[in-house]
Amino acid sequence: MKKIILAAATLAFLLSGCNSDSKNAGKLFQRAELAFAAGDYNLARLQIDSIRTYYPKAVDVRKAGIHLMQQIDLQEQHKTLAYLDSMMTVKQAELDSIKGNFVLEKDTAYQEIGNYFYPSQVVEKNIGRSFLRAQVNELGEMSLTSIYCAGGNIHHTAVKVSANDDTFAETPASTDSYETTDLGRAIEKADYKVGNDGGVAAYIAANKDKKSLKLEFIGDRNYKTTMYANDIKAITEVSNLARILAGMEEIRKEQKEANLKIQFVARKIEEGEAKQE
Question: How far is CA 136 from the centre of its chain?
Fold first, then answer.
């Protein structure tokens, strides 16, 4: 209320001047102030921009316009934060409703960010099996891992998933692959970040109702196997979890940005008021 009274007093002073430009600019300022009070920030901005464009010599009115523009910026960011808070509440409820369907693996001794797996794909349940595994970290970054242990080394670096309708998706060559042995059996693994996975995760999710898909490991020689319903479901469910977690992380980034803008504008307002004292 104090700021509104001060602005009104400033306006009265400006309109009392003899300069016609100042009077016309003051009228635009009054419209901007009324629009601001009504919550129409776009109209308020338009009026202030008009002052800058048509009455550049109305220095005192322009200064008042700058102050009002700062108030607009401040209110817009508070409005943005309120919206983001409501969106986070929705996302958190969505996460809480499904989080119990996953296994979170996180060793707090050395991990700041844990990884979610679908229960059917945890390591101890899949020893000695060649398959495609999905995981997503707590920031919503999802990846696929192709695990091959069906015989001698094939040195695979990519996988291809296809349906009986001859459509398919294929990963690019992995930049993160490694090989080892367990009791003489060759084991190969290759990781693919979703978003740079050739659309494989999205393809599997799009074919979630199929009982099986074809999975081909691509290397010096290729190895073909079948991806059954459990793995299709696991990757689809992890994809959905990744969507929620990534959305929450994006909201957090926008909240941080809005708070930084509020701090910046508030500091500018304080500096401006200090100069007037």
Answer: 14
